[in-house]
């Protein structure tokens, strides 16, 4: 672990340095003033990737120094981002209770008076480093937990088969985006997609092949609805839905047409379809026309539009 030794006296600095070195501490850095120490900390701590060598695990801080006194220096160290958990041991000739109090108030963790007993210094260094080790361990655990939570959160909003958002995520996102559309005074569009004659597809090619087909369609939709803010979701068994924030009806219709065309161009054989020899999709489009649109209203409109696309011959977009 790394120790920063701050003392204006070269004698003391080197004495502590050699003592620690002898005990096997390898990463020892010396600073002759608080200013130098702080400069060193800034140089190392605010880098993106701190190596074990650049990390500071403990500071031994002199009390009386000509530029900035130890107590003040403690405060300054604590004010540096990322230096809140690094133990500081004050090593000082001042022994009065007021200085001691001020040192702890400034953020020192421990205190040793000069001339110090070497065994005592070593014992306090060991204890402080142990504390730092425990803090680091706890922090690493917290980081891991955070990552796991994030992953769980992501997993709980994703459809297992297709990898697009699931219904739960869609419901949340639609509410959020409707509110945002009101706030930003923009139009929001929703596009609902249903595979044509998919029951016949399953009956002909089997359910497993049906699942593969769903995945392929989902991939096409992912390509189409990929603007930041767009949400592609599996709405039901063979139905998908795309939220298109900040998109008017023409824009949404355009995106829907591209999706329809791209699916057709995949040329997934479907011998039992009544509209093509390939798998096709029908699409409904709905757009908010004022700022009093509820989730129910826009979903009912998009559902009706999809119904029209089916009624009018399938493999088409309807608004
Ligand atoms: P239309 O053109 O009117 O949409 O006809 P359709 O046959 O697609 O409509 P229908 O709603 O009658 O059938 C949908 C089919 O989708 C029935 C169901 O077995 C199938 N399906 C739903 N979810 C899944 C799934 O997760 N995997 C597979 N393979 N099939 C599914
Ligand atoms: Mg001094
Ligand atoms: Mg359906
Ligand atoms: Mg269908």
Automatic annotation (TrEMBL):
It comes from the Bacteria. The keyword Metal-binding does not apply. SMART domains: GGDEF (SM00267), REC (SM00448). The modification 4-aspartylphosphate is found at residue 62. GO terms for molecular function: diguanylate cyclase activity. SUPFAM superfamilies: CheY-like (SSF52172), Nucleotide cyclase (SSF55073). Residues 186-319 form the GGDEF domain. GO terms for biological process: cell adhesion involved in single-species biofilm formation; negative regulation of bacterial-type flagellum-dependent cell motility; phosphorelay signal transduction system. The keyword Phosphoprotein applies. Residues 2-129 form the Response regulatory domain. Keywords: Phosphoprotein. Pfam families: GGDEF, Response_reg. InterPro entries: CheY-like_superfamily, Diguanylate_Cyclase, GGDEF_dom, Nucleotide_cyclase, Rev_trsase/Diguanyl_cyclase, Sig_transdc_resp-reg_receiver. GO terms for cellular component: plasma membrane. This is Diguanylate cyclase response regulator. It comes from Desulfuribacillus stibiiarsenatis.
